[in-house]
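Repro:
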Amino acid sequence: MKSFELRHIIGFQETNLVGNVYFVNHLKWQGRCREMFLKTHAPGVVQQIADGLALATVRVSCDYFAELEAFDEILLRMTLGKIQQNRIGLLFDYFRVHGDDLELIARGEQEVACMQREGEGMVPVRIPDELRDALRAYEA
């Protein structure tokens, strides 16, 4: 199974007073991974966002299996879980990198709705073809 990958080295600003990574950072990394996917595989969608397209996160979750600390290197792998109407389901696996070995430390999901800004509100729209085609290559 092909996955989109994002590597990250944890900094002190991502830890709490105890010294481990604050849980909300896992969700931030999901967003960063999604952004880098768009930049790399669907740059036209980035322009559509500037023109009023919204990729609204409507659901997010993360199950934690191990703690992380400053200077841990992580590998985040994103795959497509599902495409349904105007919604995209993304799956995330978080690994701590130990040389050539990977330790699964968390697993997350995100559901994104494609919406278009209209006046003060938003209306559902089709998933842009460029995004749909790019995601299909990473289907779980």
